[in-house]
Automatic annotation (TrEMBL):
CDD domains: AAA. Belongs to the Mg-chelatase subunits D/I family. ComM subfamily. This is YifB family Mg chelatase-like AAA ATPase. It comes from Guopingia tenuis. Residues 212-394 form the AAA+ ATPase domain. SMART domains: AAA.
Amino acid sequence: MLAKVGSCGLMGLGGFHVDVEVDVSSGMPCMEIVGLADTAVKESRERVRSALKNAGFAYPASRIIINLAPADLRKEGPIYDLPIAVGILAASGQVPFSGRRDTVFLGELSLDGEIRGVHGVLPMLIDARSRGMRRAVVPEENAGEAAYIEGLQILPVRNLSELASYMRGEKEMVYCQPGKFAARRESSGDIDFKYIKGQDAAKRAMEIAVAGSHNIFLIGPPGSGKTMLARAVPTIMPLLTFAEALEVTKVHSVSGELRGGIVTERPFRSPHHTASTASLIGGGAKARPGEVSLAHQGVLFLDELPEFRREALEALRQPLEDGFVTVSRVNARVEYPARFMLVASMNPCPCGYYGDPSGKCRCTPGQIRRYLSQRISGPLLNRVDLHVEVARPLYEDLISAREGEPSSAVRNRVEQAREIQRERYQKAGILVNSQLRGGMFDEFCKLDAACELLLSSAFQSLNLSARAYRRILMVARTIADLAGSGEIREEHVAEAVQYRSLDRKYWGGEV
């Protein structure tokens, strides 16, 4: 007897439909799985056999052939355990199954018949819904994320016995209630801006960076507060929208980092400097997403930037420019979103005290140049919009009882600036100033004569590139938005230019 059970496959962040065809016929007892299945899928034979027996079902002493169609796409992971088991039960007549084409089954089986959660449920079910599927049977563990897919009935199941009761009509099916999305503010571990003493200029730069989703580079001696400033960024970030939350959740679901439900906070990723290129950008044998994709719609913080491998840092250039990363392997070529805000910090020299008023630095000019240039290339630096020098706070600031401006006040200004940008770019297909491209600069970043003169002078004196010129315009546009100005003014351009002046001090030959 033949049974066909609907399921799904995953390639990158895209799903595809899989038909699990099970044929139970007379012959020498065996189970064969065909259809370009990987090792984890082929191991389903033993899991399914034990799960059926331990759940109280009869395992057919027959020849069982299982085909995963389409046969030219590779099937990976344990997600086919459940549809294979359902197919065997249906083909052997142990449960009624009409072979309806509007239902998909996903889940891994334990040896006692329990149904375990799997990775990538959200993108697979989004694809299933687009193909006209009306319901999905998923592990109870995955019900939290699946419930947010509109137009798809989600039936969570805990074990094979419960699923059989549903299929026989012995138990009424209880579908998940649609998920209600509520974005969250910062987590309790984040640092409020009001607790950062001094550093008014650096906090202003952080506000500008978040308002326009610009990349920012912090350089200063040890103990100046670079890491604290970076870790305070989540407290001034705007809330995730539902569309953004779905994008982020898809990436985290595929990577296996989702812990039930849906992502409600903007990601903040801080990989260690020993991270490999594959872990940072994505890759591995199965082309999994890396840190740049896990930071999508959030922050990627690289502390002690020169300590990272140069090849890993150079690989950042494409996602910083394009907002996505392409991972190519022998058996896969996938594209992951990577539109994140980069926050990087570093010391200005090997000892860390170059330019510090204490005069502790004893590094030679050659040592400083090598330290800065060996790991951090000009093209990478050029893709960072704001370069900020962070000086050590004064003693008077540290002992002052006066609290600084709280993160909530800064966040309100950031959200107002983001709203201005959303309205401005409704027809342009972008959301924030950092996404401006090509002819958009002529339309949205018009300058008067005074601004043109100032920018021309800065272009010549700082020896700026065309990319640096455009990034100054982006930052000036954001500063104008924070000021509530519809036009870019001279003071906005002047402030934007100062965030490129460190190019010359540290990389332009003055040391």
